[in-house]
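User: I'll paste a sequence; please echo it back and then give the predicted structure.

Assistant: Echoing your sequence first, then the prediction.
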Amino acid sequence: QQSNVTSSGVTILAIISLEAFAGMWINAFMVGVLCIGWVKKKTLNSNEKILLLLGCSRISFLCFSWVYSFLFIIYPSYLHVHTILQLLVCFQTFFTYSNLWISACLCVFYCIKIANFRNRFFIYLKVKIDRMVPWLLLGSGFLALAIAIVTYELSETVKSNNLNFTCLRNFQEASIRMDKPFFSYFFLIGFGYASSFMAVIFSAVFLLFSLWSHKHKMQTNSMKDLSMEAHIRAMKSVLSFLVLYSINFVCLVLSIIYIMTNNNIVTLFIYIYLYAFPGVHSLILIFSNPKLEKALLKILSCVKCE
């Protein structure tokens, strides 16, 4: 039985390592290209600022996720030291909510920047959005930090072998006590996901309505419309994120359900997706950005020639 447990742990760690390192490379490429452009132009536009911070946040999230997974499977005794457990939980929670809310900020930015409405408030937001982006990113950081601090405090009252705060459970036998800290933690998870999820939904709806309205106005115009192309490009990015985010939200709900019922196999597949999410979404962002896509295709062509 011990050999089976060891083999299962190694398999889980191998899958998580593959997803984590692939996600790190994808986000590192995005950050690297943006930093090179920053050095050359001496400036970054609002879209690039969001993407740069999002890439850094996801690299950090995947690093802490992998470290926790490695310790949890290979050296679980280290996690019985509350200082180590709390620090890992705190940092990973911070970066988890950071990349969720920064992603939501990116969708809101696309919506305000590209959608066309004659509402005075919307026009005001369109004019001021570039100045608002740093404040939105700063607010996302402060909210993530606040939840990370609360989670740090909650981790003192919940043993590491009863509840895993970083979306990885003990896939052996574990007893979960349904106490107040348990519900408090999942309430925080739900709040973080739901708030950013609603921002993404509203952004997608407004963009879709704006695209439909713009297309209706341009039906009699046979010329190529750059605004239409911008709408479509933004819609592809936002809708792809909406689909991934919807699956992510469903996985969150299912993880809560199956943790309560101790269904370890289903929980394993859910968390495998959750670890793959940062890399997959960043890859979509790369192909939806002409600058990043061009750099990636250039690198791939060079590798192919060699």
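The chain has a mean pLDDT of 76. The two ends are 48 Å apart (CA to CA).
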